[in-house]
Amino acid sequence: MPVHASQESQVNQGRGVGLGLALASALAFGGSGVAAKPLIEAGLDPLHVVWLRAAGAALVMLPVAWRHRSLVRRRPALLAGFGLLGVAGVQACYFAAISRIPVGVALLVEYLAPALLLAWVRFVQRRPVTRAAALGVVLAVAGLACVVEVWSGLGFDAIGLLLALGAACCQVGYFVLSDQGSDAGDEAPDPLGVIAYGLLVGAALLTVVARPWGMDWSVLAGTAHMDGSPVAAALLLGWLVLVATVVAYVTGVLSVRRLSPQVAGVVACLEAVVATLLAWVMLGEHLSAPQLFGGAVVLVGALIAQSSAPAKSSAEPVAGALPGTEGASAEQGRPGERGEPGERDVPSGGDVPTGLPARGGGA
């Protein structure tokens, strides 16, 4: 009995640590848009901000990449796909979106990723979808209609909404990629290594697209404004690189080693809430009552869609969460092994970390 009590105590302690790490990851990712938007408004192009974020984080993670250099030979396609979709694609679309629409709205649109993912699973992969997952999709779409206020003829910039939807589509591609090799067991690539090389690949791709040599570097030596209050641009960039990227990814990876995909997914939903509240308080981006209600419905729908994972004994894979989460154990996973969108996850087999809203979101 004492042995069982000790084991149970260790399990509870591990879950507590995992919950704290997942919470820290959601908070860190949720603050990315709030730090990036003032830099964009100060004169930096959204693509330049994305490049600074990815390149800075890649430099920080360079020692990790060197340690896992065998991944370049073993999983080149995985690293390239993660860099293209999980880093460059999601962040570029998300940051471009928040330059035109409120941070909270952009992130909530990005939360359509679970709905788009289930459509991919149902109609492209032709796998059955649970009723709970379908209900989650309906709720997410209905909530989004409230967020963008369709009854008023789309109160936000249409291009901004399309860019946010593009970020959601990149999340879908990332989630599909996350399923690759999820059953590799001990042969699965280390998620920290995938993060490091994903950032390196993403930074390289963004260098070609963003052309940072044409950036106005003097902006970083000046100040930006958050709802009228001056803040050092270098301080915002440091937060964006170290906290909203490196810390967010690493805590996310470590959290899913101690939590189940479902629990991690519930905590991840706080990212959108955190982003919206921070944008409200620090940027003065107030949302109306219908938009707040719609945002809550989007989160509930995303939560239902990602938490309806089938039992491990299912004879046929059922899509109720992210690919690769069927029967995943608490020892398998990724920072977003939550089965939900976000700029920062690792598949249930420890294959890929997601997340950057974002992820964007995640960013």
Automatic annotation (TrEMBL):
Any one GO CC term of the record: membrane
Pfam families the UniProt entry points to: EamA
Keywords: Membrane, Transmembrane, Transmembrane helix
Domain of life per record: Bacteria
Membrane-traversing stretches: 46-66, 78-97, 103-121, 133-152, 158-177, 189-210, 230-251, 263-283
Domain EamA: from-to ranges: 18-148, 159-304
Region entry Disordered, spans: 312-363
InterPro entries associated with the record: EamA_dom, EmrE-like
Comp. bias (Basic and acidic residues): 334-346
Signal peptide, first to last residue: none
Entry coiled-coil feature ranges: none
Family: Belongs to the EamA transporter family.
Name this protein carries in UniProt: EamA family transporter
